[in-house]
User: Fold this.
Amino acid sequence: MDLRLHDTLTREKRAFVPLDPKNVRMYVCGPTVYDFAHIGNARPVIVFDVLFRLLRHLYGEAHVKYVRNITDVDDKINDRAARDFPGLPLNEAIRKVTEETGRQFHADVDALGALRPSVEPRATEHIGEMSEIIEKLVAGGFAYVAEDHVLFSPQAMNAANSELPRYGALSNRSLDEMVAGARVDVAPYKRGNTDFVLWKPSKPGEPSWPSPAGIGAPGRPGWHIECSAMAWKHLGTHFDIHGGGIDLVFPHHENEVAQSCCAFHQSRMANYWMHNGFLQVESEKMSKSLGNFITIRDLLADWPGEVLRLNMLKTHYRSPIDWTLKSLEESGKTLDDWYRVAADVPPGEPAASVIEPLLDDLNTPQTIAALHGLRNASDAAGLAASLRLLGFLSETGAQWEGRKRQASGVDASEIDRLIAERAAARARKDFKESDRIRDELAAKGVVLKDGKDADGKPVTTWELA
Ligand code: AMP
Ligand code: ZN
Assistant:
């Protein structure tokens, strides 16, 4: 059976035919490095790591190139740098933030069993390519300079009589409707209300580079142009797969296609556009204000990375995923069992029953069912090889068991702190939070008992389950 992938642009599953089977090329939008990555950010990392591994299995390790960028120019980075390092010059503070966050990101995704991509380009190292693309777009009449900005005109793109794709095709929107529905308070320097920024002036103290297109003042790139430039530099003008989360389809990917296709006069940027669905936590949108924002780092304090990885892959990548403690616990039990059976046996060949569902647009739930099948058939060698192909069994059985004992080594002062937090939550009638804390402790094997002390005041004691 051949690999079939769902393409967001054509909205169908199609046979995957690489442009060059000796050089299969994939680009995935990476993190903006200003804070710890959350568990939603881990989804594209894990999903496209599975695809990377599958492509390497099919075409050979030397014949797959995976590029995932690091966005290190962004307002959020500047804000964080000013807040965290008020004493430092902004540029130095920004370097501290991006370097430290980049290191944290690597440590986190390594722990999730994700292979490092072939190349991890940084936006700040590709300003030259961004300027080149911008120059081409201005020369071609697709972009214009206004008040030290360079703006891209989707209307100019759709008016061009050529092989270009239609602006809006990827996200299935009509430009006319976008124009009609756009906000009225658009920046005065924009000719059209859907025009987007390729380049803008830097504020004093912000990072800045010599501007393209004859602009005298220094400036900095917009976000979308960064990915067009890095993909071009490392994968060429036209490559096989472009991926990211579903939230990136519009405007980010729509604008990437527009920039790259107009600059290089071509009808396609990538042949397959793949997008993972969103992750929510305990049936709610994850957000800082709701207090259910979970970083990868937090989860790694309680769970081995492979448990998070398995838990992510239980849901098909295009479906929304509901991240729950219950599901994590089940994933933990499953891996304990698989480690017991397969960690220390010499691996055989990955089973066809495991690979076939992967070939069908990465049907990982079906793949996991096949792994359970191997387990039930006592095919330890097949299970071991299949798990390794999918990025599991990075530890020996003894390491896995040892780590579990460590994880359940409870820290009494931490428990007391959580009990106090829970009491405070109950006092303000935030029962959701108090239940959450109780569940968190339960997951560590700590059972709480609510009672009253000699004076009749409520007290909470604990014991190990
Ligand atoms: P960002 O750093 O916000 O640009 O996000 C990096 C990657 O994580 C992008 O591919 C996003 O689409 C993806 N992402 C962000 N939040 C979520 C989420 N809640 N669920 C799934 N993917 C997400
Ligand atoms: Zn991107």
In short: Residues 90-111 form the longest helix (22 residues). The chain has three domains: 4-279, 302-401, 408-464.
